[in-house]
C-alpha cells in the first residue's frame, strides 16, 4: 500500500474539478493550513497577525461548513434531521453564518470558556459540544479519504457519518440557542399565526374602508409598520373579539406580544364600545394619518391628502368640538363592526361607506356609557385619549417585540401584496422595428425625459452613458409625484432614470438601464417605469 503522503500527492484532485468532494478537499486543506499557522504563532509577540489568522480561520471554516452542507443535500437529502425548530428562534439569529457561530461556541465550551451562557448551562452543553466536534472530525476524515479515492461517490460509511453529524449539529444548535434566548413555544407560534391572520383581515378591512390603498401595500410604505398594528388593535377588540386579542381569557393565554398590555387593552375596549360610527371612523383615519403626533391634537392640523391619497377628511370634523358631558341620545346601538356597519341613526352627518357586516357585540348600558363619556370634557378629548393609548401599545411593539413584529409584518406583506406582474401594459407602448414608441403615454411637465418625445429612445439607440442629473436632497421637501412631505419615516429615493426624488410608494420598481451604464436593475419611479422603459428590462421590486 502506498504511503499516505504519496497517495495524497498522486490522487490529489484538481482545483478545476466541479465535484463537491473535490471542493471539500481544498476547503479542508485551507482550514488545516490556517490552524497550523495559528498553532505556530506566539500571540503575545505578534497579536496583529494572530487576529488576522483568526479571521482567516473563521472564513475558511464557514466555507468548509457550506461545502459540507451542500454534500449532505446531495448525499442524504431524505435523511436530514428536521430543522422545524428554527421557527422558534428570533429572526435576528437566523443569519447565513449561524452554523459557523455554533461551531465556534462548541469549541469555546469544550475549552472551558462559557460565552454568553451561565456556567451551569455551559457544563450541561459541554458533552453535546464534544460529541459535535468529534463527529465533525470524523466527517472531515471520511470525506477527505473519499476525495482522494473516488470523489464522485458516497459509500455507506460516508453517509452514516454525515447523518450522525447532521443530527448532533441540530441538537446542539437547539440546545445552545435555547440557553441564550427565550425560544417560542408551540403555543406561542400558533398564537402569533393567529395575529398574522388578524393583521391580514385588518388590512383587507382598511382597503375596503379606504383607510389604505393597494399602492401603499405594494410600495411597502414604512408608515404601515405603525398603521397596521394600530388598526389591528381596534379590529381585535371590536371586530373579532374572540380572536387573538380576546379579553375573555387571561393574559397568560394571549400571545406574549400583547399580554403585557392586557389591562390597558381592557380600558381601550370599553372606550371603543361607546363610540359612534363617525367617531370610530375618525379615530381610525387619525391612526392611519398620524406619523409622530396626534392629528386630533390642536397643534397638528389633519393631513389627509399627504398620508392617504384620494381620501378626504371625514365629514364629522365639527363633532370633535361638541362637548359630550352627557352622551348623545343615539350612539353605538349594539352593533359595532367596520365603520359602515355601525348603526347611528341620530347623527346628521353622512354615514361612512359600508364595508360589510361585523359581529354583534353587546354595547355598554346607557348608564355605563354615560359614565365613561363623563370622564372627558369633549369627544375630542376622548378620541385623543384613545389615540394616545392605541398608538402607545402599537408603538411599544416596535420596541419591546421588534423581532416578533417584524416577522409578523413580513408574512402579512407577502399575503396582502399584489401578486400580479405590475409590468403589464400601463399605457406604455409597443415595440416597432426594435424601438420603443411612446405614443399616447402620459407626459409629465417637469420630467427631463418628457421634454422631447424621442429623447428617451435616442439615448437607448445611441447607448449613451450620460446619467441624468440628480435633484439635490436639500432642494426637495416632498415627493415629486404624490407631493407627500418627506419625514423621518417617509424617506427620499432618487429615480435612476430621471434623477428626481420620490417616496417609496411612487418608486416601487426596478429596471436595468444599460443606456446609462446600469446593467443591473436599479430603482426607478412609476412614471419612468410606465412611460420611458421598454418591457424587457422591467422587474418588480421584491422587498
UniProtKB/TrEMBL annotation:
SMART domains: FYVE (SM00064). Transmembrane segments: none annotated. InterPro entries: FYVE_LST2, LST-2, Znf_FYVE, Znf_FYVE-rel, Znf_FYVE_PHD, Znf_RING/FYVE/PHD. This is FYVE-type domain-containing protein. The keyword DNA-binding does not apply. Pfam families: FYVE. Keywords: Metal-binding, Zinc, Zinc-finger. Residues 473-533 form the FYVE-type domain. CDD domains: FYVE_LST2. Residues 315-375 are annotated as: Disordered. One of its GO terms (molecular function) is zinc ion binding. One of its GO terms (cellular component) is early endosome membrane. Belongs to the lst-2 family. It comes from Anser brachyrhynchus.
Amino acid at each position: 500500500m502506498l504511503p499516505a503522503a504519496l497517495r495524497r500527492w498522486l490522487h490529489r484532485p484538481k482545483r478545476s474539478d466541479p465535484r463537491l468532494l473535490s471542493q471539500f478537499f481544498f476547503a479542508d486543506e485551507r482550514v488545516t493550513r490556517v490552524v497550523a499557522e495559528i498553532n505556530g504563532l506566539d500571540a503575545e509577540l505578534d497579536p496583529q497577525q494572530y487576529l488576522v489568522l483568526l479571521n482567516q480561520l473563521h472564513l475558511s471554516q464557514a466555507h468548509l461548513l457550506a461545502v459540507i452542507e451542500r454534500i449532505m443535500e446531495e448525499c442524504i437529502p431524505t435523511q436530514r434531521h428536521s430543522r422545524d425548530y428554527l421557527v422558534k428562534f428570533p429572526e435576528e439569529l437566523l443569519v447565513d453564518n449561524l452554523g459557523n457561530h455554533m461551531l465556534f461556541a462548541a469549541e469555546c465550551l469544550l475549552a472551558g470558556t462559557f460565552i454568553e451562557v451561565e456556567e451551569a448551562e455551559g457544563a450541561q452543553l459541554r458533552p453535546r459540544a464534544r460529541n459535535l466536534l468529534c463527529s465533525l472530525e470524523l466527517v472531515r476524515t471520511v470525506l477527505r479519504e473519499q476525495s482522494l479515492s473516488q470523489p464522485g461517490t458516497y459509500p455507506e460509511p460516508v453517509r452514516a457519518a454525515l447523518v450522525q453529524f447532521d443530527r448532533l449539529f441540530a441538537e446542539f444548535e437547539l440546545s445552545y440557542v435555547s440557553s441564550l434566548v427565550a425560544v417560542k413555544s408551540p403555543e406561542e407560534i400558533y398564537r402569533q399565526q393567529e395575529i398574522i391572520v388578524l393583521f391580514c383581515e385588518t388590512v383587507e378591512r382598511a382597503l375596503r374602508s379606504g383607510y389604505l390603498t393597494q399602492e401603499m401595500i405594494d410600495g411597502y410604505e414604512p408608515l404601515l409598520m405603525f398603521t397596521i398594528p394600530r388598526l389591528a388593535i381596534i379590529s381585535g377588540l371590536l371586530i373579532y373579539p374572540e380572536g387573538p386579542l380576546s379579553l375573555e381569557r387571561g393574559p397568560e393565554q394571549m400571545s406574549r406580544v400583547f399580554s403585557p398590555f392586557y389591562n390597558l387593552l381592557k380600558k381601550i375596549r370599553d372606550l371603543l364600545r361607546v363610540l359612534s360610527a363617525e367617531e370610530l371612523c375618525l379615530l381610525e383615519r387619525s391612526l392611519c394619518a398620524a406619523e409622530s403626533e396626534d392629528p386630533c391634537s390642536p397643534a397638528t392640523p389633519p393631513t389627509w391628502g399627504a398620508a392617504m391619497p384620494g381620501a378626504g377628511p371625514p365629514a364629522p370634523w365639527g363633532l370633535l368640538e361638541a362637548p359630550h358631558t352627557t352622551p348623545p341620545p343615539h350612539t353605538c346601538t349594539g352593533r359595532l363592526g367596520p365603520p359602515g356597519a355601525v348603526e347611528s341613526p341620530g347623527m346628521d352627518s353622512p354615514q361612512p361607506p359600508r364595508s360589510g357586516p361585523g359581529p354583534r357585540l353587546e354595547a355598554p348600558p346607557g348608564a355605563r356609557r354615560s359614565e365613561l363619556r363623563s370622564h372627558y370634557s369633549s369627544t375630542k378629548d376622548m378620541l385623543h385619549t384613545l389615540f394616545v393609548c392605541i398608538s402607545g401599545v402599537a408603538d411599544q411593539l416596535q420596541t419591546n417585540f421588534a423581532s416578533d413584529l417584524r416577522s409578523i409584518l413580513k408574512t402579512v406583506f407577502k399575503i396582502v401584496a399584489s401578486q400580479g406582474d405590475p409590468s403589464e401594459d400601463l399605457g406604455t407602448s409597443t415595440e416597432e422595428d426594435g424601438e420603443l414608441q411612446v405614443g399616447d403615454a402620459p407626459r409629465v411637465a417637469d420630467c427631463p425625459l418628457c421634454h422631447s418625445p424621442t429623447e428617451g429612445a435616442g439615448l437607448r439607440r445611441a447607448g449613451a452613458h450620460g446619467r441624468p442629473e440628480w435633484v439635490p436632497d436639500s432642494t426637495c421637501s416632498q415627493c415629486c409625484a404624490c407631493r407627500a412631505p418627506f419625514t423621518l419615516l417617509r424617506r427620499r429615493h432618487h429615480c435612476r432614470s430621471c434623477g428626481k426624488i420620490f417616496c417609496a410608494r411612487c418608486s416601487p420598481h426596478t429596471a436595468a438601464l444599460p443606456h446609462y451604464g446600469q446593467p443591473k436593475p436599479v430603482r426607478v419611479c412609476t412614471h419612468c417605469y410606465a412611460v420611458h422603459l421598454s418591457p424587457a428590462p422591467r422587474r418588480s421590486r421584491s422587498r
